[in-house]
Amino acid sequence: MHSLRPLLHPPENEQILLAQAQRLAGYTLGELAALAGLAIPPDLKRDKGWIGILLELWLGASAGSKPEQDFAALGIELKTIPIDRQGRPLETTFVCVAPLIGNTGVVWETSHVRHKLKRVLWIPVEGERQIPLAERRVGAPLLWEPSEEEEHQLRLDWEELMDLIVLGQVERITARHGEVLQLRPKAANGKALTEAIGTEGARILTLPRGFYLKKNFTARLLARHFHL
DNA sequence: TTATGATCATAC
DNA sequence: GTATGATCATAA
């Protein structure tokens, strides 16, 4: 017998959120999906965000498309992160879409990247593809805030990337720019285009881009916490 | 083997 | 198209 059940509403405080997240540690995705009455896909090929949706459901985050932190009242963003057997991240972490126009005067302090990463509840989940989706286990949660050094690293990369965007060099930016934060396409497909500034300051159409945390960055913050 | 560039589903 | 949730798949 057990009383594990999804939170039906956003948690009223941080303690409730953390307690629920800690209760989920050790369960498989199959168990959590069944208890929540959610159908489990055969794999993630066509359901890349499924684990994120499942954990949102369990933690009472209002699912859907709202440009806000998952737990706005608590100022906390939820991120699931796929890890290998050694606890290292298997994928980069999407942060937010990069604004390609209207950036004159934007600064790090008020940027979307900084706001999104102010406080993050990381939920590690076994992510190796050899493990059937239903058998992958949820790990212990980590409520993280960037250290001074981490924020400095993020800021330097963000400023470099935003400078290039403002100067009309967006199409020359590759994922190799940035030490901990990178810019990569974030689109439904190659036909999805958005407005940007091109060379000579001309208006161009280009692939929407997103900011992503590189694995070296998330690996260090996980290792620091879990003593890996 | 790995990271970059590309892509998938859904709501509005 | 943009927002949410991310992982896939192939070049190197």
UniProtKB/TrEMBL annotation:
InterPro entries: DNA_mismatch_repair_MutH (IPR004230), DNA_rep_MutH/RE_typeII_Sau3AI (IPR011337), DNA_rep_MutH/T2_RE_sf (IPR037057), Restrct_endonuc-II-like (IPR011335)
Keywords, ordered alphabetically: Cytoplasm, DNA damage, DNA repair, Endonuclease, Hydrolase, Nuclease
Keyword Nuclease: yes
Compartment annotation: Cytoplasm
Gene Ontology MF: a single term: endonuclease activity
Positions of the DNA mismatch repair MutH/Type II restriction enzyme Sau3AI domain: 59-157
Major localisation: cytoplasm
Role summary: Sequence-specific endonuclease that cleaves unmethylated GATC sequences. It is involved in DNA mismatch repair.
Family as reported in the entry's similarity comment: Belongs to the MutH family.
Protein name, as recorded: DNA mismatch repair protein MutH
